[in-house]
Write a structure and sequence with these properties.
Layout: H1 6-21, E1 55-59, H2 60-63, H3 71-75, E2 82-83, E3 99-100, E4 112-116, E5 119-120, E6 139-146, E7 160-166, E8 175-182, E9 187-197, E10 200-211, E11 231-245, E12 248-262, E13 269-283, E14 288-305, E15 312-318, E16 321-331, E17 338-358, E18 365-388, E19 391-413, E20 418-423, E21 427-441, E22 446-457, H4 461-465, E23 468-470, E24 473-476, E25 484-498, E26 501-522, E27 525-547, E28 550-564, E29 583-592, E30 598-606, E31 609-610, E32 618-619, E33 622-634, E34 637-644, E35 652-656, E36 659-662, E37 667-674
Parallel strand pairs: 4-7, 24-27
Antiparallel strand pairs: 1-6, 2-3, 4-5, 6-7, 8-9, 8-37, 9-10, 10-11, 11-12, 12-13, 13-14, 14-15, 14-16, 15-17, 16-17, 17-18, 18-19, 19-20, 19-21, 21-22, 22-25, 23-24, 25-26, 26-27, 27-28, 28-29, 29-30, 30-33, 31-32, 33-34, 34-37, 35-36
């Protein structure tokens, strides 16, 4: 098990003391204010500390050329990014859309913090990310920083942070639209209006995806009750930015979305929906600040069909949840050599499961169940970056007050008699986390970096209180779950021998103590438990090479991850975490011309992985090739051709004792795009 490294902790705290000793005066240029008001619609910008950690960026050009048009495929180009399952957001259960980094696995809950314009996107009850509600073409960029995080909302950044930044009026055409259809008759349509209004701007965007889907069940396992993975999803967003003064912006955002899917059997329908709103005040003067408040209203429903009698056995008819929170971050003027960030953030989640169980033989109602509670997290943070010539030192501390309260589980039979009535104990605690790093430029073309960090993640309401069934396997909740805690180290190098080529290498050693996992108790029974630890060591690599109009981007990660126990009697010790491959890689080659032609091809490989913690069901490796073409027709009008899984490779996304689910087969899209 990793030990706390006091030398690294001391180094991380040292930069925090530097502002008091610094003798530099703020640059006089800061007092000079340009006459024009420039609207950016962004936060305070990246702190220098980003350079000390393993980070990658996805550009807008990359986002608008994704062969599937899905945000998860765009993120898949980043070394170490992983979904809980291989299936995308058209053919998976929404509650299984957890994302993580660094081979740390998961149980469908995200171990990575995902932010959209600074707002956490995870579902308040389940912790999954509503991927279908995020349209790649509406984003300006994505930054992925791996490793545990302090700073704003750092308690959720167990394996890293994924920051999504919306495109503003400066990036979008006044009118943009696209419409595509594929060879199965499925459709995808999106549109946006972007307009400068006085001292600000307004963006209204929407997207609608609909289709019959494909058979996730292999041909030899299909029965009359087998259904295609049909889907229909829509999202509508409004974002406005107003300059109150030359240095202060008011930003507001609202999004509404709904997603409906069918999985495996007729009647196995699920739905997720949400309405999110946020308001943000950003000051970019001498005293910089970022004040944010947000609210989320979400719901989820799911019908479970028996895999033997093919009738409804469970109706998770309603799971309303609410998330609210905010942050205040201040960057005071402490000298040009320093960037000091101090502040606080708060998050609260509450929700309740409402479900009904039915007999597989008679179809009559047998039981009604309710479960829920709330969790909250108040964080206080301070972080300082100190640039001394070629050396960057960064360090941060974070204290979190966490609370788990009002947890309950209640079950009644069809006559209304109480079968089970459990009230969980309330719990609260203060927890300290930190991170520190350095980056040193050996020359103009070579820089080395090193970092150490800890991280924290509270169990979700889903993990604490909601049992679920993927028939015939029952997974029990566990109201006594403790928070996960990460300790990690990494070293790396960034190399740019010439302007057209860059290479980044990172070696990491991370460990999650008390990792929440679905632990097998019997052939058809699992329970969420804190296992002693998940340990992961590995090497990440990414490279970019521009040759005239041609660009090649590649990334790869090799990891050695294992479950660790307290002693030799722990049955899972030495096993690889479920859903974690040893090796994954992605390469994208693209070519663009001055007159608007753009061609891209993407090759992606995911190594073999295990479905379960006992390593009994194996998912074989998969390698797929996809492509994108954009051909100019007239002015801003383009013809679009996209191809997914061009060689029609068989992608196994689930294997439960031989019952297999498959990923997307070869799919060809054609359509038109204007202004994107």
């Amino acid at each position: 098990m990793l030990r706390r490294n006091h030398l690294i902790l001391a180094a991380s705290l040292f930069p925090l003391a530097q502002p008091a000793m610094a003798q530099e005066e703020p640059n006089a240029d800061r007092e000079e204010r340009p006459d024009p008001i420039v609207v950016t619609g962004q936060g305070l910008g990246d702190a220098p500390s980003v350079a000390a950690y393993a980070s990658s960026e996805i550009t807008r050009d990359d986002l608008t050329a994704v062969p599937s048009g899905r945000i998860e495929e765009a993120l898949g180009a980043i070394a170490g990014f992983q979904q809980f399952r291989r299936s995308d957001s058209r053919s998976s259960n929404p509650s299984a859309q957890g994302v993580t980094l660094r081979a740390l696995g998961g149980n469908a809950t995200s171990r990575a913090l995902v932010l959209l314009d600074g707002v956490p996107m995870a579902d308040p009850f389940f912790g999954y990310i509503p991927l279908s509600a995020i349209a790649p073409e509406q984003l300006a960029r994505i930054r992925v920083t791996r490793g545990g995080g302090s700073g704003p909302f750092g308690a959720g950044a167990l394996s890293g942070t994924i920051e999504l930044e919306s495109a503003g009026v400066e990036s979008l055409s006044p009118l943009a639209a696209s419409a595509l259809v594929n060879d199965r008759g499925e459709t995808e349509a999106s549109a946006s209006l972007a307009q400068e209004l006085g001292t600000g701007g307004l963006v209204v965007s929407g997207r609608w995806d609909r289709g019959q889907g494909f058979f996730t069940t292999p041909q030899d396992q299909r029965i009359p009750a087998t259904a295609r993975a049909g889907f229909e999803s829509w999202s509508l967003g409004v974002r406005s930015v107003v300059s109150l003064t030359p240095d202060i912006e008011l930003q507001a955002r609202a999004i509404a979305f709904r997603d409906e899917r069918t999985l495996r059997f007729d009647g196995a329908d699920s739905s997720s929906e949400g309405q999110d709103a946020s308001i943000r005040l950003v000051g970019k003067g001498t005293w910089q600040f970022d004040a944010l408040a947000y609210v989320q209203a979400r719901n989820f429903s799911n019908i479970v069909i028996s895999s033997t009698r093919f009738v409804r056995v469970l109706d998770q008819r309603n799971t309303p949840s609410t998330g609210l929170g905010g942050k205040l971050e201040i960057r005071p003027p402490v000298g040009d050599a320093h960037t000091l960030r101090i502040g606080a953030d708060y998050r609260r989640a509450d929700g309740e499961l409402q479900e009904e169980a039915y007999s597989a033989f008679s179809g009559v109602l047998t039981e009604r169940r309710w479960a829920g509670g709330n969790t909250s997290n108040l964080g206080l943070f301070a972080e300082n970056d100190w640039q001394a010539g070629p050396l960057l030192l960064t360090g941060g501390l974070r204290a979190d007050y966490t609370r788990i309260a009002d947890g309950f589980y209640r079950a009644e039979n069809s006559a209304g008699n109480v079968i089970s009535d459990i009230t969980a104990s309330d719990r609260s605690d203060w927890r300290l986390s930190w991170r520190g790093g350095l980056r040193y430029e050996l020359s103009k073309s070579v820089a080395i970096r090193a970092a150490g960090y800890t991280g924290l993640r509270l169990p979700t309401l889903n993990e604490l209180y909601r049992p679920f069934v993927v028939f015939p396997v029952v997974t029990q909740a566990n109201a006594e779950l403790e928070a996960e805690r990460l300790e990690g180290l990494e070293v790396g190098a960034d190399i740019r021998p010439f302007d057209e080529f860059s290479l980044s290498l990172t070696a990491f050693d991370n460990e999650v103590e008390g990792a929440v996992a679905n632990v097998t108790l019997a052939s058809n029974l699992r329970q969420r438990r804190n296992i002693p630890a998940i340990s992961a060591q590995g090497i990440e690599a990414s490279a970019e090479w521009e040759i005239g109009s041609f660009e090649l981007k590649a990334s790869a990660v090799w990891s050695d991850a294992e479950i660790k126990g307290d002693d030799a009697s722990f049955e899972l010790s030495g096993n690889r975490p479920p859903q974690v491959p040893r090796f994954a890689a992605s390469a994208t080659g693209s070519w663009s011309s001055r007159d608007g032609w753009r061609l891209a091809a993407q090759l992606r490989h995911t190594g073999a992985q295990f479905e379960d913690d006992l390593e009994t069901d194996r998912l074989r490796a998969a390698t797929i090739l996809s492509a994108f073409a954009e051909i100019p027709i007239r002015q801003k009008l383009r013809f679009i051709l996209r191809g997914e899984n061009l060689f029609d490779k068989k992608i196994v996304t689930r294997n439960s004792d031989g019952a297999v689910d498959l990923g997307a087969p070869r799919t060809i899209w054609i359509g038109l795009r204007y202004g994107i």
